[in-house]
Amino acid sequence: MAASLRAWLVDDSPSSRLQARLGRAWRIAGALSRNPLAVVGTVIILALVLTAIFAPLLATHDPLKQDLTQRLLAPSAANWMGTDELGRDIWSRVVYGARITLVIVTMVAVLAAPAGLIIGALAGYFGGWPDRILMGITDIFLSLPKLILALALVAALGPGIENAVIAIAITTWPGYARIARAETLTFKNSEFISAIRLQGASSLRVVLGHVLPLCTSSMIVRVTLDMAGIILTAAGLGFIGLGAQPPLPEWGAMIARGRSFILDQWWVATMPGFAIIVVSLGFCFLGDGLRDVLDPKSGEQH
Amino acid sequence: MQGTGKTSVAFEPDTAAGAVLAGTAKAVGSGRHKRFLLGLAGFIFTLAFTFLGLLAITFFIGRVVPIDPVLAVVGDRAPKAVYEAARIELGLDKPLIVQFFNYIGSVLRGDLGMSVSTGKLVADDLKRVFPATLEMATIGIIIGVLLGVPMGVYAASRQGSLVDQAIRVVGLLGYAVPAFWLGLVGLALFYAQLKWVGGPGRVDIFYDGLVQPVTGLILIDSLIAGERDIFFNALWHLALPASVLGFFSLAYIARMTRSFMLDQMAQEYVTTARVKGVPERLVIWRHAFRPILVPLITVIGLSYAGLLEGSVMIETIFSWPGIGNYLTTALLNADMNAVLGATLVIGAVFIGINKLSDVLYRVLDPRAR
User: Fold this and answer.
1) A177-227 tens-digit pLDDT
2) What percent of chain B has pLDDT over 90?
3) What CATH number is attached to the domain comprising A103?
4) Structural domains in chain A (count)
5) Homologous superfamily, domain B122-368
6) DSSP secondary structure letters along B251-318
7) Residue A175: closest CA among chain B residues belongs to which residue?
8) Which candidate in A144, A222, A251, A292 is best for mutational testing of the B interface (most B CBs within 10 A)?
9) For residue A233, is it within any domain?
């Protein structure tokens, strides 16, 4: 049974679209599993998602419940990562913080990737003036310092998670637009696109139905690699006090609160930092592995 | 090389501008002189265009702010006539495009408005705080280059070894560690526990304000004044924040150096040199390393610009009186003139260094001419 399923998956002449897609997924998963760092990355991201889903089960305390008799306790069997200045359990807050981080990175990806994809594909497909104008704007955004731009945007929009997501998305899309444009240019004059156009397909149909799907794999690689940067920016905004607002257990904001106690109660600021590092590294590892599998020409050959 | 995907973000604006330049140069293509002038014109055009874009963005952000600039001047209990007069005086009754040109004009005159929180001109504030950031970032990039380049070369020459793996992980940590967290942990460990470095601030409190600012760079000013104690005290205070910045620059530079070196060492001329019997050390430093000097300049330039930006996150931690501290204070006070002024200055320096390293690359690399 397992053997025949495997044979069906790796069949060189798939008889249906589903079989072809599943077969491709199988091959990618196989290639990833041979890359140890990619496996570590996948495990970390899975752990993040599971932690976010099952936060109420994993948390040992209520993340928002204050208990001033229990403030600033060192890590122990009862409080695995210690407690903060309001007596809240840091482990439980870190666990719930996974939800906030996951929401932020997902929202940024959902906003920025399609926007960049469409802008880049349109610019590449039509060329000429639309290309020059769209890419001129893209290049301006690309040459500005991202973090500063995000800070100024949040200052204007007002603090909060939603505005932080919008600001980060505004600084992220240009990278995707560049990739989509470059990919579109390589496909634009190929024969299969000409064939579709000769069949009478409209430009919109060619771009949406045939050009965009071809850009997705390099896009997935890029988005995964960008995730670490997005997490760091979001945490930075939280640290400055412009991201998630109290009492939300956002990791960057938690580090900010631990600042005053860093010399004596080091765990308050240090623990959420470890969470940020582990998750960011996970995305880096996975992104690297995905690039080697999906987009080998842009990565290292070594 | 690991993490190319992200680093290439920073490269893209330059390659884009480069493509434009190469295009204009090729189209005319007669005579070296003419090509150079056209290239220069194209460069100035893209630079001006990018600066204009930066101004448009800061202008736009200034308009989106829900704070009414008129109310900030007259107060919210002013009668309607006073409000209207102030509105007209500020030029806010004119069409947006006229306001934008007025804004460009005032920025070009060096007028960035008044800071609500310091009560001084934003331009004067920025002039005062910028040297502190520059000093920290410069020491940071020196640390990054001095350690990062040899690490990258060594990793490439021992590809796959344990040391190589360790250097790759350091490189990735540069993407995963929040700068402000590293600063805090550094303070707790190296200042509070080990007492190896000075604490927050540029000098100890009793030295504060003793040196007359000439350049604003305290290391140089203290030398000019002949105050050796203050010089060493400042160095002691600078060590930790500059090392934190240096770590991020080191991670990036080591990763790029490693990848450039691996590319070179796969070239046939390197094999030829080895076959000829050139000692491995010479193969690495003379044959493989020399050609990567040119792309390395671009990497170092980008890293330097990145450090100026990165200082924003760590200056508050070290109570460093630089532009980052100024910006974050302004952010929390909703002091928009100061926020936009600082954004404009950091953005302009960032763009300037970016484009400059791009030009250097073009001038130094014969293939790019």
Assistant:
1) 999 998 888 888 888 888 988 888 888 888 888 888 888 888 888 999 999
2) 27
3) 1.10.3720
4) 1
5) MetI-like (1.10.3720.10)
6) HHHHHHHHHHHHHHHTSHHHHHHHHHT--HHHIIIIIIHHHHHHHHHHHHHHHHHHHHHHHHHHHTTT
7) B9
8) A144
9) yes
